[in-house]
Each structure stands twice: as structure tokens, then as C-alpha cells.
Amino acid sequence: MAYKDFREFLAALETDGRLRRITVPVDPAGELSCMARWMYQALPEERRFALLFEKLRGVDGRLVTAALGASRQTYALALGVAPDLITERWVQALCRPIAPVDTTVAPCQELVTTGADVDLGRLPVPVWTPGKDAAPYLTTLTLTRDADSGIQNLAVYRTMVAGKDKVLVNLSPGRHGTRCWQSYLRQGRPAPIAWAIGCEPAVHMAAVANVPYGVDEMTIAGGLKGEPIALVKAKTIDLMVPANAEYIIEGEIRPGEFDQEGPFGEFAGYMGPVASKPVATITAITCRRDPIYYGYVSQMPPSESTIIQSLGNAGLMLKQLRHDLGHASVRDVHIDLTYGGVLAHGIVAMKPLYPGHAKQVGRLVADLSFLKRVTVVDEDVDIRDAMHMDWALNARYNPRRDTVIVDDVFCPADMDPAVPRVDGKPGINSKIVIDATEKTESGTFSLPPAEDMDRALALWKEAGLPSFDIPKRCKFMLSRG
Ligand SMILES: Cc1cc2nc3c(=O)[nH]c(=O)nc-3n(C[C@H](O)[C@H](O)[C@H](O)COP(=O)(O)O)c2cc1C
After folding, report:
1. Residue 415, pLDDT score
2. Is 3.40.1670.10 the CATH classification of the domain at 304-435?
3. What confidence category does residue 339 fall into, taking pLDDT thresholds of 50, 70 and 90?
4. Which of 11, 29, 34, 60 has the greatest CB tally within 10 Å of its CB?
């Protein structure tokens, strides 16, 4: 299903019972994010929904959060596949990217404000950790461009609203937006930058995939959507922006302008540090008529941020292992949705083909990603089933023999609370790789044969006992005998 824009996706969410309208007035500077926090902390994943705030106190407009990343189910709806197929759909999109097309038909430019009329205070930008964040923050798509190659970059970098036409952008060392900005700095020119709010879901999903520098995430968005993303020339800067967005904020980072950014509640569960970051001056705000603001809820996990980053990057990892690095016996990759997003736990299911193969793949994943923990299991383990994973760790893992510690890891995201900063700079971390694949011939499972279990299931039904879906782990176990 290729949604033409964000609104069409919201309508699909509502039809599917996965969007709630909040009609009581809510303050975007506090109450809004607290309500979103209750949803993530108190509701189990499958019961979560997008929150559409229809009446905001003190500011015009409507705001959505958790549209894409309330749960794996909302994300699957955005991709148009069943939840179990999200990772494979990502692999297809990465293998078949589709370049964007330029257009002059641009809903995102129905209303245009430039110059002295620009005022970010008219947008419903939330304070995400009230009482602790320094200011309202944009948590949305950031577009930049490499001055030398002309290739654009799409990502999400938290952006602090510092005045009616000023923001501070969290451009961290090593990040692609930072490299784009620095490419202009080297030429002594202002760097163009834009924020897109409320695009077709594929654009939002592609932005947080950690693809190599020089790959325009908009081509991956095309692959995910199944058709090219329409881009239009921005009104005041030299960037192409998503034509169907709800809002576009255009700006430029002028050489030599810095200020203190933060604190801001971060995705690993603590407040992020205050640091000097580049100032961007806003040159235009364009939007649709009656625009809908979309901001990601991040901070204490689980959150929209951890869910969208985990799902996309699992697909990227599977594609890299299988297609780029030739490990064809890797069957599946899952990244823990709950706790730390990119810093969290990656799990690989594979058929090891030679001694040390599983450890080799585990080390590759640790090196290629920000994941702190990597566990490799056999292909007969359901890697999305916590009970089955725990069983594999108990039955097939010998810590002394099967653990690899990867040392001297620099955390470019600069946000790992377990690593103390040294002289104000991010410190050095380590990672763990666990090989929980079977290494000894352990014989058959201590379960009755499949035929006996099938007969018992028929009796179960005849006896009128409660019905259930057969867990995938049972299918795996019974098929081995
Ligand atoms: C809500 C949200 C906020 C984020 N904020 C930042 C940030 O401030 N700095 C950062 O480096 N990454 C941040 N990320 C993660 C990056 O957007 C993500 O890793 C992306 O793929 C980086 O793109 P790049 O490799 O093109 O730099 C954030 C992600 C989300 C969902």
C-alpha cells in the first residue's frame, strides 16, 4: 500500500482502530508529552495507538505523535505488510531503491511565510520532557546536502527552538548531517538545512536507517513506497524537499554561529548533555492548508524513536549480512524494540556453516552497528519470542566458550549513559557478542512426537478448552522431533 501522503496514512490508522483523537484541550508545553509517556509506559505494545491532539492550548493547529512507531503493528500498516514481514520488506527496498522525481505540484507550499514573518512560535512544537528540556524541540526529518557531491541526506537530529527564527541543531561528530554542514563550511558558505514534518510514511521510515554516507535515504524511501518520492525545490534555499509534507521549515547554518544546546531528554533514558551546537536561521516556513504537525516521541524507552529505529535497522543489517557480505545462511535479524533502539540488543538467526561462523557474523554485526549486545542463535529459534530466546541462552550457550568482548568502541551518537565523558568528549565503550548456536550434538527435544501432540490438540478442542494460536517456537520444536 503506497500512501500518497501523511493524511492518507492517518486515515488508514483510524480505520484500523490505531488512532485516537483527543478533543480535550492539551498544553503542548507539558501535558501532551506526559500523555504520550503514559501510553508507552503503561500499555502493552499491541494496544498502543497514534495520538491525534485536536485542541492545543495557546497555539493553533493539530498535532500527532506515535503515528508510525506506536507499535510494530502501526509500522507494519505503514509499510503495507504483516508485522512478520517488516524485515524482509526492508531487504527488498534496499535491494531495489527508487530515485525521487522532481515536481512543481507541491501541497507543502500551499502557504508560504518568509523573512520577518517567520515565527516558529506559531507551530505547535512540544516540550518533550517538561521541567527538564531547555525549550521546545523539533523531532522530525532533517534534510541537508553535501556541497561537493550535491547528494542530499535525510536523518532525524533533535533541534532546539531558540527564537522565532533560530534553532540549534544537534549535529554530532561522524553524523552525515554534520559532514554535509562541514562541506559548506570548508567553502565558507552557509549550509542549507530543512525540516520536513508529516510526509508519506516511507520517508519517515527511511530517514533513520544507518546507511553509508553518500546514499540518499530518499531513494530507500522510494524503494519502501514502491514508487518515487516527489520532491520540490525549497522556496528560499538550495534543497529539494518532500512535496507532500505537511510542513517544511527552511533554514541555513551560517559559518561561525554557535550556541549552547540542551539539555534534552534522550532515547537511552537519561537527560542528554548541554553542548555547543550550530545555530540555524529559519528563512521560510511553508505548509499545507490546515496542516497537521507530527513530532516523534523519544526519551525514556520504549518510545516511537526506539521502535522506528529498531525495525528499519534490522532490515538494513539483514540486507548487509546476506547480500553485501555473502552470509547467505543468515535467515533473520531482530533488534530489541523496547529498550535502547540503536544502542540495544541485536539478534541474528542463522545456520552456521563452519566452526566459528556464528561468532564471525556476531562480530560483524557489532562492528557494523551501534548495537551494544549481539546474540546469534540457530535458525530454529524464534528471535522475536523472549521465551524462546531465553531457552536458547540456557540450553546452547556456555559463557566462557561462547562470549566475545569487542573493545575500544567509540559511540558516535554521543548518548550512551554507561560511558563517562572524558574532558567533555564521548568516552570509549565495549560490546558483547554471544554465540548461542548449538555446538554439541544434543539429541532430540524432550517433547512428545509431533503426531502425539497433534492428536492431543484435537482432544483439547473436543474438550472445549480455550483456543490458542500455536506459537512459532512450538512449530520449530515439533518439526525437529
Ligand atoms: C526522535 C529522534 C531523534 C534523534 N535525534 C538524533 C540526534 O539528535 N543526533 C543524532 O546523531 N541522531 C539522532 N537520531 C538518530 C538518527 O536520526 C539516525 O541514526 C539516522 O539514521 C542518522 O542518519 P545519518 O547516518 O544520515 O546521520 C534521532 C532519531 C530519532 C527517531
Report:
1. 72
2. yes
3. low
4. 29
Residues whose CB is less than 8 angstroms from the CB of residue 150 and which lie 6 or more positions away in sequence, other chains included: none
> Which residue's alpha carbon is nearest to atom 10 within ligand 1?
157
Ligand 1 pocket check: which of 158, 182, 195 to mutate, most ligand atoms within 8 Å of Cβ?
158
Pick the range with the lowest mean pLDDT from 4-18, 214-228, 241-255, 437-451: 437-451
Residue range 64-69: average pLDDT?
98
Q: pTM of the entire structure?
A: 0.95
CA dist 315 and 335 (Å) reads: 9
DSSP string covering 388-415, please?
A: HHHHHHHHH--HHHHEEEEEEEE-TT--
Residue positions counted in the chain = 481
**pLDDT score, position 395:** 96
Instruction: Quote the ligand 1 centre to 245 CA distance (angstroms).
Output: 19
pLDDT in tens, 306-316: 999 999 999 99
Say how many Å lie between the CA of residue 318 and the centre of ligand 1.
20
| pLDDT tens digit sequence for 130-166 | 999 999 999 999 999 999 999 999 999 999 999 999 9
- Backbone phi, psi, residue 374, to 5°: -130, 130
The domain ranges of the chain are: 88-294, 304-435, 450-480
First to last CA, the chain: 40
Is residue 344 scored above 90 in pLDDT? no
Superfamily of domain 88-294: Electron Transport, Fmn-binding Protein; Chain A (2.30.110.10)
